[in-house]
Amino acid sequence: MGVRFEDLTVGAAPAKLTIGPVSRTDIVRYQGASGDMNPVHHDEPFAQGAGFAAPLGVGMYPAGVMHAWLAGWVGPEHVRRCRTRWRAAYFPGDTLSFEGRVTALTATDGGGECEIEATCTNQAGAVTMQGWLTARWGEPGL
After folding, report:
1. Number of structural domains the chain divides into
2. What is the DSSP track for 40-108?
3. Is residue 133 part of a domain?
C-alpha cells in the first residue's frame, strides 16, 4: 500500500536499509538469476587482469535492492520511473547502506507526484550508487 501522498513532506525519508556484508555467493546467485555471467564478477584472476583487486559486485544487484526498497515505501502501484547512476564499485565483504529522501512534491487534482533521491554507500561511507524514483498518486485506477 505504501505511504499516502497527503502524508509526505519534502525531506521525508524511509527507514535506512543496510545489507551485507555482501558475499561472493550473493553475487554469483544474482549473476545466475540475471544471466550476467561476466567473469569480472566471480573470477579472481580475470578481475585482477581487468585492474581490480578482487571480483566486483554486479551493479544491478544494489540497484534492484534500492528501487524495491523505495517502491515498498511509496507503494509499487505508484512508481512511474526509476533511474540509477553508478559511482563506484563494491566488492565481496562490503556492507551497503541505502538512504533516501523526498526532494519534490507536486500536487495535482486528486493526487500528486513525488520525487525521491537515494544513495547507496559502503562501510567506508563512499557513495557507490545514486538513484531516483518518481511516484504518482491519483491517476485513473489508482
Report:
1. 1
2. GGT-HHHHHHTT-SSPPPPTHHHHHHHHHHHHHHH-GGGEEEEEEEE-S---TT--EEEEEEEEEEEEE
3. yes
Cell numbers for 135? 511516484
Full residue range of the structural domain in which residue 92 is found: 5-22+59-137
The answer to whether residue 54 is domain-embedded is no
- Decide: 131 and 63 in contact? Cβ < 8 Å: yes
pLDDT digits (tens, 9 = 90+) for 8-43: 999 999 999 999 999 999 999 999 999 999 999 999
Distances (CA, A) of 4 to 47, 64, 73: 45, 23, 10
Each residue's pLDDT tens digit, 108-117: 888 999 999 9
User: Is 121 part of a structural domain of the chain?
Assistant: yes
Q: How far is CA 79 from the centre of its chain?
A: 14
CATH code where residue 11 lies: 3.10.129.10
User: How many CA atoms lie within 13 Å of 104's alpha carbon, on the beta-carbon side?
Assistant: 8
pTM above 0.70, yes or no: yes
What pLDDT is attached to residue 110? 82
